[in-house]
């Protein structure tokens, strides 16, 4: 494995034929014959938690498929203040909103140890033009991103919804597949997403922990996780009145 820098390594070319995630990836509907040409220039990359994948306004020279881990997307206002606007998980495409732009629209940072497939932008655009099936898949991915953005604004950022309800909804969005594991972010990241202070996040997480809804599980392949009571989190996310109850009443 060739080391690129302290937080980023390249393990060589991807093999789309043996990828266990191909059915969920952007190239899922590409035939095996066409896939032979598609996967040749694609690199496997690994990023440590906290590593920057690209910065906002960087030249958009690639898109990235997430094979493992989680990524946060940041935007900056005119004063230089950052805001977490979305996060991406396994099966998502990073940089998709920059396919028809010259610059990256966000800064992308690995929240956890993350594995990506890097597809050169020129190759990606050429392949899109030749394969209608891929065009449809990209449209679906774009619609998913729009729905997630709408959900982000209405369910996570709105100050009219209790902070504990929004935290429960965020934790559910951070769920790893269909398991009971949830990505565990820093207090600053939780607060940055929800628009609340790290101190408030700490208090709410402590309440959920005291109620047995969240248990820290340390580090694993996906980084720091919680083992979560998914039904209990779901109940809180759907019923704001539960957010005002004592933890012992859950």
TrEMBL record:
One GO location term (cellular component): cytosol
Domain HTH crp-type: 161-227
Keywords: DNA-binding, Transcription, Transcription regulation
Gene3D superfamilies in alphabetical order: Jelly Rolls, Winged helix-like DNA-binding domain superfamily/Winged helix DNA-binding domain
Record-linked SMART domains: cNMP, HTH_CRP
GO molecular function: DNA binding; DNA-binding transcription factor activity
Organism superkingdom: Bacteria
UniProt domain Cyclic nucleotide-binding: residue ranges: 47-145
PROSITE patterns: CNMP_BINDING_3, HTH_CRP_2
Classification via InterPro entries: cNMP-bd_dom (IPR000595), cNMP-bd_dom_sf (IPR018490), Env_Response_Regulators (IPR050397), HTH_CRP (IPR012318), RmlC-like_jellyroll (IPR014710), WH-like_DNA-bd_sf (IPR036388), WH_DNA-bd_sf (IPR036390)
Name of the protein: Crp/Fnr family transcriptional regulator
């Amino acid at each position: 494995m060739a080391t690129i820098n302290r937080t980023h390594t390249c393990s060589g070319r991807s093999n789309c034929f043996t990828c266990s995630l191909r059915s969920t990836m952007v190239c899922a509907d590409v035939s095996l014959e066409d896939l032979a040409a598609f996967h040749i220039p694609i690199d496997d990359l690994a990023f440590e938690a906290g590593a920057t994948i690209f910065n906002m306004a960087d030249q958009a020279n690639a898109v990235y498929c997430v094979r493992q881990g989680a990524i946060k997307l940041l935007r900056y206002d005119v004063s230089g203040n950052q805001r977490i606007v979305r996060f991406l998980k396994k099966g998502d495409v990073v940089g998709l909103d920059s396919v028809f732009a010259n610059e990256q629209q966000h800064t992308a940072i690995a929240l956890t140890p993350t594995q990506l497939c890097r597809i050169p932008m020129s190759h990606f655009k050429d392949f899109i033009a030749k394969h209608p099936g891929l065009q449809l898949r990209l449209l679906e991915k774009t619609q998913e991103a729009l729905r997630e953005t709408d959900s982000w604004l209405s369910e996570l950022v709105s100050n009219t919804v209790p902070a504990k309800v929004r935290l429960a909804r965020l934790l559910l969005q951070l769920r790893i597949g269909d398991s009971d594991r949830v990505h565990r972010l820093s207090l600053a990241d939780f607060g940055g997403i929800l628009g609340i202070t790290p101190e408030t996040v700490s208090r709410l997480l402590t309440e959920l922990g005291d109620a047995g809804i969240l248990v820290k599980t340390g580090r694993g392949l996906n980084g720091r996780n919680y083992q979560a009571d998914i039904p209990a989190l779901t109940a809180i996310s759907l019923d704001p009145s539960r957010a005002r109850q004592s933890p012992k009443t859950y």
